[in-house]
Amino acid sequence: xxxxxxxxxxxxxxxxxxxxxxxxxxxxxxxxxxxxxxxxxxxxxxxxxxxxxxxxxxxxxxxxxxxxxxxxxxxxxxxxxxxxxxxxxxxxxxxxxxxxxxxxxxxxxxxxxxxxxxxxxxxxxxxxxxxxxxxxxxxxxxxxxxxxxxxxxx
Length: 154
What we know:
The chain is α+β, with helices and mostly antiparallel strands. It contains four helices and six strands. The protein has helices at about 25-35, 40, 45, 60-70, and strands spanning about 15, 20, 80-90, 100-110, 120-130, 135-145. The two termini are about 25 Å apart.
């Protein structure tokens, strides 16, 4: 399966991901994987006295889950050259164990490069929980393949 080429990422196009519930075990596993043992993520007793009242997921964990959900849309299978980074990334509300998250992306800009086989795509990302509260937002930048010119064509 081939994903979308640069030409297909026109400003205004939107996609929605499927949803996934973030569990206690995922939060604990991410703490172990990343080494981020901040008590907001690992200490339920500590969290009882915080504004959150319970453990919360790491912001990068939420992004990682959403990245997987978006990958499952097959939008950039064999057409993504590189994820160039974030122009902005905000964690706007906590994600707690048991929250179900999904994402919406929208193309904001399509930028040609000096090389004819590639182009830059900027897209906004919004992550929502099951109550449609925005929990994360970002502006992402990708380097995408351009549609190949047919052999013998112009």
